[in-house]
């Protein structure tokens, strides 16, 4: 490494460096500024786009309450084309609509789609719990048990074991159902669900 003994030598060295590398530094600076501006623009664009999507979802969701075929088709199109939280919510609303019409097969499809789109683990857990309930209503007991295995997190334990007990009861596995309800009662969770499990457990004993 060169050592410059005078101020003039240092200045001359800097000049030579800028002369040789100046254009590269300028390009780097421009690219850096461009990247920053681009990032801010993208963030603003994403925020604006999400706001617009929210407005569209709200409008479509209101129209869905009518139950008309046209409104269902419009929400389905929105759900298929929207890969964010509002697309997930649209699938959930379609599932609710299908359940009110006793179309469990369609509700299952919507809940599967919602679970696949959801990025948040708690949202995935909620959708899978609802999906397991629908599958149980369809007598798809083995599929419902597999769906419950996808639910992670201790906070969902009591709800999972409550449904698992119901599924095993339907399958005729009384010992398994009793174990599931007992495990649920030993977990933290809403008192209402635990009270229901106590009743179910007592009925199994009888």
Automatic annotation (TrEMBL):
Keyword vocabulary terms for this entry: Cell membrane, Chaperone, Membrane, Transmembrane, Transmembrane helix
Pfam families, sorted: TPR_21
Membrane topology: Single-pass type II membrane protein
TM regions (residue ranges): 24-42
Source organism, top-level taxon: Bacteria
GO cellular component: plasma membrane
Keyword Cell membrane: yes
Primary location: membrane
Gene3D superfamilies: Tetratricopeptide repeat domain
Subcellular location: Cell membrane
GO MF annotations, alphabetized: protein-containing complex binding
Domain Ancillary SecYEG translocon subunit/Cell division coordinator CpoB TPR: 15-205
Family to which the UniProt record says this protein belongs: Belongs to the YfgM family.
Protein name per the record: Ancillary SecYEG translocon subunit
